[in-house]
Design goal:
about 300 residues, alpha+beta, seven-stranded mixed β-sheet, four-stranded mixed β-sheet, 9 helices, about 30% helix, about 25% strand
Length: about 300
């Protein structure tokens, strides 16, 4: 099957959501944003052997590449609307493409996102790039740069699970919960929307909690004290790796796609699924403490070109 047949068979369907005037099948998409809103544009790439292990089910690859982009949309408090796809294949058969498309559309449909265009090519390894357009009320987007001294630092979910799940996959061991947290991350769109007008700063946790918190602090010109004992560890990660290793995963492991944000403690009262883990300080350092003692943490996070 050539690229045009592949696109027609697996990636062309009638638009399901509002604002698509022309979608897949022309030289470009024509989209109609809602009045009074600003657009948020995000893009992420997943590469076989780098962002996902060879042999990961194709449906999981398709789901992940959408979900990681939706996490960026969530971190800015926006609503996802449309996406485009660039897909490089390296000998994958039609069954793989069918699985990939099913996962891609499963993640998209869960959040009302239409695929409106893209490109397919052949290469040395499988590579998928998704670009998502979201919308948010003018002037209301959450940024990394608004944290203030005295704000509380919060995180959603249970960080560390995805990195632990990847470790299990790489070792050939199974754990339905932890490996699924890597294979099928949950973009926190609803939480991001709830934080608009509440959070002072926000970032999604893709490269490690401490490393991404550092990015937020640098953008805001502040520091942070993190209470390691407050980390919301899942029962599964503690059972599989023990508490010390679980803490290491939670602080430095990537691929969680949770939200780390700052706000006053009272402002998020009643918001489910968030945990206070520290406080913003007026210094520039990130200090992690466990039972009052300072803990050394490699907060570099994942870097492609380090």
């Amino acid at each position: 099957m050539d690229e045009f047949g592949l696109i027609r068979r697996y990636f062309t369907r009638r638009a399901r959501y509002a604002g698509v005037i022309v979608g897949v099948g022309d030289d470009g998409a024509i989209l109609e944003p809602a009045a009074g809103l600003q657009q948020v544009q995000v893009i992420d790439t997943v590469v076989e052997g780098v962002h996902f292990p060879r042999g990961l089910p194709a449906a999981d690859v398709g789901y992940r590449v959408v979900a990681v982009n939706l996490s960026d949309i969530a971190s800015m408090g926006a609503v996802p609307r449309w996406m485009t796809l660039a897909l490089t294949l390296a000998g994958q058969d039609e069954q793989w493409v069918e699985g990939f498309a099913s996962g891609l559309f499963e993640a998209a449909d869960a959040h009302g996102v239409d695929l409106v265009g893209g490109d397919t090519t052949r290469g040395e390894v499988a590579v998928a790039t998704v670009h998502v357009t979201g919308e948010i009320e003018a002037g209301r987007a959450l940024l990394r740069s608004g944290a203030r001294t005295g704000d509380t630092v919060f995180v959603t979910g249970s960080p560390g699970d995805a990195a632990a799940g990847l470790s299990l996959l790489e070792d050939g061991r199974g754990d339905d919960y932890l490996t699924r947290r890597f294979r099928r991350p949950t973009p926190r769109i609803a939480t991001g929307r709830a934080l608009v007008g509440v959070a002072s700063a926000c970032i999604d946790v893709s490269d490690g909690l401490v490393g991404d918190l550092r990015k937020l602090c640098e953008a805001s010109g502040v520091g942070a004290d993190v209470d390691v004992g407050s980390l919301p560890l899942s029962d599964d990660i503690v059972a599989a790796f023990g508490r010390d290793r679980a803490i290491e995963f939670a602080l430095t492991g990537g691929d969680d796609y949770e939200l780390c944000f700052t706000a006053s403690a009272d402002a998020v009262a009643g918001l489910d699924g968030v945990t206070a883990i520290g406080v913003i300080t007026d210094g520039g350092a990130i200090v992690c403490r466990r039972d009052g003692a300072i803990v050394d943490v490699d907060d570099g996070g994942y870097r492609h070109f380090a």
